[in-house]
Design goal:
Layout lengths: L20 H23 L5 H7 L3 H32 L4 H16 L2 H9 L7 E2 L8 E2 H4 L2 H26 L3 H9 L4 H31 L11 H12 L2 H30 L11 H11 L12
Antiparallel strand pairs: 1-2
């Protein structure tokens, strides 16, 4: 029995897309709600959009963005570096080393980061003089632990506890045979970790690390309690003088969204790089997702373009 031919011109059968009316209904309803919210926000004078435009590039705000980025990068670097060390310590066969790392993670994950920030800021109440155990060294804690130093210690040491768990999970995701093969080739444990295990574990470590980086960017707003002039505290200083609370909070929020979006795009490219050789298809970039979206909804992709 011969199959019927169709008139598509390029194939023997016509592919008819399924009708999905409820998809259109849901999309229309969501779009209507979004449009109403946008209209409400634009037409409500209490949002103070003219003030938002006025203070969007204020010098204090721009300086606050710089301090926010500085804290994010420095604290994440401290957290990643110490987190790798803690992860290796937790996987150690030495029970004392393993227990010490586990205790660190338990303490820093078990207490709020705001409490830790306040603790480091008031460290001089416990140790007025810091000697590091070195004879002849005596540093004034009030001068050494500035608000910025307390912010770096509080955020960085807290982040190390979370990063250690991420790195440990990444290391344990690598098959044990990889380490055994490296050992058979004469590599030491350090060489095996650096050259074999960690490069393969990066594809597991990178995505949650990107999330932690973006989370750190927003967590830096907590250091406003220490009077560190980051983005949020800079906005607070301005609205404490002119009482334009909502416009200044909008300015800070818009900047947080912009920076977070930029880092999210960068995270996507980083994930693509470390996923090479481990999966058949690398994650799409933002531009590729946009092109795919318009390509899927084009008349050609839906089959309507073939109709003649």
């Amino acid at each position: 029995m011969s199959l019927p031919k169709t008139g598509t011109g390029t194939g023997r059968f016509t592919v008819v897309p399924a009708r999905r009316p409820w998809r259109w209904v849901a999309g229309t309803a969501v779009a209507a709600v979004v449009i109403l919210l946008v209209i409400s926000a634009v037409t409500n004078p209490r949002f103070g959009w003219d003030k938002v435009a006025l203070y969007f590039r204020d010098v204090a705000i721009v300086n606050g963005i710089g301090i926010t980025l500085f804290l994010t990068v420095v604290c994440m670097a401290l957290g990643v570096g110490l987190g790798v060390v803690l992860a290796v310590m937790q996987l150690s066969a030495n029970p004392v080393v393993k227990a010490s790392a586990s205790a660190y993670v338990t303490i820093f994950r078990g207490t709020p980061v705001l409490v830790q920030l306040l603790f480091w800021f008031n460290l001089s109440a416990l140790y007025p003089e810091i000697t590091f155990g070195i004879p002849g060294v005596s540093l004034d804690a009030n001068q050494l632990i500035t608000p910025l130093a307390a912010a770096i210690l509080g955020l960085g040491l807290n982040e190390a506890a979370y990063m250690s768990e991420i790195v440990r999970a990444g290391i344990q995701s690598i098959d044990q045979g990889q380490s055994e093969a490296a050992g058979a080739l004469g590599m030491s444990r350090i060489q095996t970790l650096v050259r074999v295990v960690l490069p393969q574990a990066m594809r597991v470590i990178i995505p949650p690390t990107g999330n932690e980086f973006i989370g750190m960017l927003k967590t830096t707003s907590l250091v406003s309690v220490l009077a560190v002039p980051e983005l949020l505290y800079s906005a607070q200083i301005i609205y404490s003088k002119n009482l334009q609370v909502v416009p200044l909070l909008l300015v800070a929020s818009i900047w947080y969204i912009i920076i977070t979006t930029v880092f999210t795009i960068g995270q996507g490219y980083l994930e693509r790089r470390f996923s090479r050789g481990t999966s058949r298809s690398v994650p799409p970039t933002t531009m590729e997702r946009l092109r795919k979206f318009f390509r899927v909804h084009s008349p050609l992709a839906t089959g309507k373009g073939n109709a003649s």
